Amino acid sequence: ELDLARRMCEAAIEHLAGDDLLPALNLLSNILMKQAELEQAEQVLSRARALCDRLQNKAARAVVDFQLGRLYRRQEDFERAIVHSSRGLAQFRKMGDRKSEAYALYDLSLVAEQQADYGRGLDLAHECLDIFTQVDDQFNMMNTLLHLGDLYRAQQEVVQAQTCWQRSLALAESLDNGLYVEGIKGRLERLA
Fold first, then answer.
1. How do residues 112-149 score in pLDDT, each as one tens digit?
2. Which of 57, 107, 170, 184 is 20 to 30 A away from residue 140, measured at CA?
3. What confidence tier does 44 reach under pLDDT thresholds 50, 70, 90?
4. Could you tell me the CA-to-CA distances from 140 to 4, 38, 115, 137 in Å, in that order?
5. Cα 49 from chain centroid (whole Å)
6. Taking the mean position of all CA atoms in its chain, how far away is CA 163?
7. Are 89 and 101 in contact (CB under 8 A)?
8. Which of 127, 126, 132 is nearest to 163 (CA)?
9. Rounded to 5 degrees, what are φ and ψ at 77?
10. pTM for this one?
């Protein structure tokens, strides 16, 4: 499935230019990251960044910075992850793009978690949850509550972890998301 999407995206890139090329490059970078082709994803994002700068497209550059932040987080290059995710976050805020702002906050929270900076991770994840709640994005609320529970658990704050996971479970059940339901129930059982 991903291989087909990758081939289609690569074929489309051959025929696109300018602003029309940017979404295809972004999609290809996502596919490559899912396939763990991180070096290739970085090359694609570098191409996209150069194009954004040439076109002076700040909105697209914010997306590219966010994607680079995700890429560097996966490579455990946390300094660069923070720089790029923070740039994307700042631009999303300037544009008033609340949902993208929440995604950037979530990713920065993941970086904090990977660095064992749980307090910072909690602050960022709570800010993220507030936004997803305001825009009524129940899937991402569920996912963020799950992440918050993990952060609280890492700090041995069992009651808060349980509360977040139970809220996440209720959302997963209302969304009929069996995969999340199983995972959350497993976390709750291990907590007991």
1. 999 999 999 999 999 999 999 999 999 999 999 999 99
2. 57
3. very high
4. 27, 25, 23, 6
5. 18
6. 23
7. yes
8. 126
9. -100, 80
10. 0.91
* Residue 68, token pair as written in the block: 């680079």
Per residue, what are the HEC states of 166-185?
HHHHHHHHHCCCHHHHHHHH
Helix axis angle for 178-191 and 138-154, nearest 10°, is 20
In 3D, which of 62, 4, 52, 55 has the Cα closest to residue 28?
4
Nearest in space to 145 (alpha carbons), one of 113, 120, 171: 171
CA 99 to chain centre: 11
Amino acid in position 187: R
CB distance 28 to 9 below 8 Å: yes
Residues with Cβ within 8 Å of 67's Cβ and at least 6 positions away in sequence, in order, are 26, 29, 30, 33, 45, 48
Which phi and psi angles does 131 have, rounded to 5°? -70, -50
